Structure formats: C-alpha cells, structure tokens
Amino acid sequence: MQSGSQSGEQHPLRCSERPDFELGDPAVRLVDLFSGCGGLTLGVAQAARSLDMALDVALSVDIEMPMVEIFQRNFPKARAKTSDIAELIDGEVSTPLTKSEKSLKKGVGPIDILVGGPPCQGHSDLNNHTRRNDPKNELYLRMVRAAEVFKPKVLMIENVPAVLHDKTNVVQRAVNALKILGYKVADAVIKLDQLDVAQRRRRHILVAAKGKMPSPSLILGEIATRQGARKSLSWAIGDLASIKDQVGWDKPSRVSPENLERMEWLIQKNEYDLPNFMRPKCHQQEHSYKSMYGRLKWSEPAQTITSGFGSIGQGRYMHPDLPRALTPHEAARIQGFPDYFSFDEISRRTVLSTTIGNAVPPPLARAVLTPFLRQLKASRSS
What are the catalytic residues (predicted)? Predict the structure, then answer.
C-alpha cells in the first residue's frame, strides 16, 4: 500500500484546518443552485484561494434542509436558502422576469459566477423507468433562466453524461438560449480521475461565458483531453486504514454474516472479484454485475461513489485490505472532500451516505473555473 504524498507537499485531502476562503482581493461573487452540500462551491472557493481571491456566496439554494445546513456550516457567511428553485426562479426562459425574480435579483446583486448541478435521477442509467423522459429533467433549464435573472459572467452546469440523450434535448435547448443571451457556450464529458479525484466518475459539463472571458471550448477541450497519472485509492485514503477508533464517520456499516464470509474469502484468496458460487442465488446466473461484491485495489481509482458505498452488495466498495465496506470518511475523500469539510450536521447514516454519494467532487469546479477566475482578477486589476 502507498499512502503518502511526496516529501514536503501537503496532501490536499488530509488538511484539517479550513482555509479562510472569505479573505482575499478581489472577491468573486457566487450563486450556487441545486447546491447540495456544497461541492461546486468548495471547488470555486479552492480556485479563488489559489489566486488570493475571496469567496462571497451571494446565494445558495437547495430543496433539502440537511444539505443547506451542511452548506451553511462550511460556508458560514453564505446566504444559504432552503427552497424549491422552480418556485424561486419561476419564469419561463426567454420571457420577461417575474415579480419574484426581480425581487431576488435585487436582493442578490451583481454576481460573477453561477454554478449548479440540477437533479440527475431522470437521466441516470440506473433509472430504468423514466430515464431521459422525466419532468425533473426540465430543471436543467432553470439554470438558463437563472442566467437570465442574474446575468453572470460565467455559468457552469454539471450533470451525468446521459443528459445528452434526454428526449427533450435539454442541453441543446440550453446552448441555444444561452447563445441568444450573448454567451460563448461549450460542453464536454469530463473524466474526473484526471482531476485529482480517485474514482472513475464521468460528468457532463456545460460552460457559458461572456465578455473578455476565456473561450469555454478551449478550456473544456484541454480538460477533456488531459492525460496524466490518475490518483489511486491509496493516495486518497491510504492513511485512514490505520485508524483504530472506528467511531462517527470512520465507522463502517454493519455487515451480514454472509457478506463477512464473502469479504474474508476475497482477502484469503487474494481475489478482487467474487465468483458466482459465492454470490446470492439471484446473482449466480448470467449477469453483468462483476463489480458487485468486489474488492477495491490500492493502486487504482475507485469505481464511481454512490450513496450505496457502505454496502458491498451495491458495487465494488470493499476495502482493499479489510473485511468491510468503505466508511463515510473514506467515501468523502474519494469524492475529493478534504478533512476540513464538515459533515457533522448529519446524524442519520442513510442521510450521510446520500449526501456524500450525491455530492459533486470539488476538484471538478476548481479545474474548470480557475482560468475564468484568473481572467476576472486580471480584469479588475487593470
């Protein structure tokens, strides 16, 4: 197992002291819609910090109160709001602003960056019932309407790659509407294991920018074709294997006797894929669930983290050395959250798993938006 970073370098995930993201000059004013626990905002904060810029979260919105509470805990000066965005931003694209939208715009003031990750369940390949034809898919266009309301310099929308196959063509409709507003627009599917995220996660990103901002197509093109050494599981969580006091978010989920037997077999045999005879009877026939009940490897990125990371029956979530599934702490690290990001507001294990599994890895926003923040700083210094 390799668990350390290179000598003299501070490991980006092991830092327990939160940087003062609110200090710096100039300040970047941000709105984060469908914010979840704050993965996109944290990525912007990290990008701003690297440029000695301050973060000013003018507004963050999510419909789930636990998410808003976590967001507020980690960004105490933010204006974090629990609300249905479809009610908060209630006008149709390409129509005059509604009374509530005008009031919201006035209260928030000018902003620089607008980010959001609309709910993606309707696009997910795991959703076999309403996939690509779900009314929630239309929430994607709420981001376009938000751009009409706030008029940001830069817009970033995050979603699953399957959004490209939406039956109502929400991505192309968004691109067309944003171009009418005067934005340069580009979109791409990004492999996050090239962005300091130790998992094989792919996300669809749409970026729109106006004025003297860099070309979104050039920025996304560089990121989408980036090649380099992928971060391994050992890099992300190697140091956590030695934690003896397994309490709180370092405590793994309870395991059934059957699954304990399966994991001990994998360790004893030094195998990573469970053979059919060891699987439940319903999984012993022809199947494509090779990763299910599988063991992770230290030398490779993890599979995509979902809310099921605490169960080996949900995917390849078994620890490389120990007969247990991943802990919430390990899953958060694999998602790219440093130790200073607090999930302490959550007491229920199921809510914690959902929060971490549904989060947007912060390195994504950091990589995409750093060039735009650099230009923003340069323009304000000239």
Answer: 120
